[in-house]
Design brief:
29% helix, alpha/beta, 12 strands, 26% strand, 5 helices, five-stranded mixed sheet, 2 domains, four-stranded mixed sheet
Length: 238
């Protein structure tokens, strides 16, 4: 059974073909039409177009709005860590990915980057806060903001680096290959666009991709030595 939208599209297609045929015959002087007849054809096209628009706004658009995915807006962790006054701001608790507690060996911990990560694109700031208490354990917190495309959370499809802790070593690891993500972008329908002002094509509106950020926070007792490759880990004392 043909649904309403299919019928509307077919009707518009038929009208366009009729107009094309009339214009072709008219240009070849095989068919002379009066202005009255041409206006009737144009009026018929407008009626079909308006009918399709009403159907779209009444039946199709409400269903699309019902399945609209909630937009995600996250703070920029880089701006919090590297504040204008040189002070590290408070990292948002709602973006805590995971927490660990470890007992360092020989008053030393090591932060490493394991195989599988793309070294040229990997960099994580490490915020270190020293404590004066008697507790010798190290507390590690990984903060992570979501990866978004068009303000939609796609973190499940594009995961960031993962962190594992063994002994006195914190190891970051990730995918060994690039991840390919396919998407479809739906623009305004032709029936709607014809009644709106035209705008230049803006690539940014269609490819607004924001990769998530990660920050490692360490709460350590004094006299703990931290070893890390400065090429990938920026150690910042809070």
């Amino acid at each position: 059974m043909i649904n309403v939208m299919t019928f509307t599209v077919l009707a518009i297609f038929v009208v366009i073909i009729v107009i094309f045929v009339i214009q072709k015959f008219s240009s070849n002087q095989k068919l002379n039409l009066t202005y009255k007849t041409k206006y009737k054809v144009l009026f018929s096209y407008i009626v079909v177009l308006l009918f399709a628009t009403v159907i779209y706004l009444s039946f199709v658009q409400p269903k699309m709005a019902a399945i609209k995915i909630e937009e995600v807006h996250a703070p920029i962790l880089y701006d919090i860590v590297y504040g204008e006054d040189g002070q590290v701001g408070e990292l948002p608790e709602q973006f805590i990915k995971d927490e660990w507690e470890m007992e360092p060996i020989n008053h030393e911990i090591e932060i490493a980057l394991t195989s599988g990560m793309y070294d040229a694109y990997f960099s994580i700031p490490v915020v270190v806060e020293e404590r004066n208490d008697q507790n010798q354990n190290v507390k590690a917190i990984l903060y992570e903001t979501p990866t978004t495309f068009l303000d939609r959370d796609i973190s499940e499809q594009v995961s960031l680096a993962k962190l594992s802790i063994e002994g006195n070593q914190l190891s970051f690891y990730g995918e060994e290959e690039y991840i390919t993500v396919y998407f479809r972008a739906i623009d305004k329908d032709m029936t709607v666009k014809q009644f709106l002002a035209s705008h230049p094509y803006d690539v940014g509106n269609y490819f607004n991709f924001e990769q998530g950020e990660q920050v490692l926070y360490l709460s350590v007792p004094k006299k703990i030595k931290i070893k890390a490759d400065e090429e990938f880990f920026d150690i910042i004392t809070k």
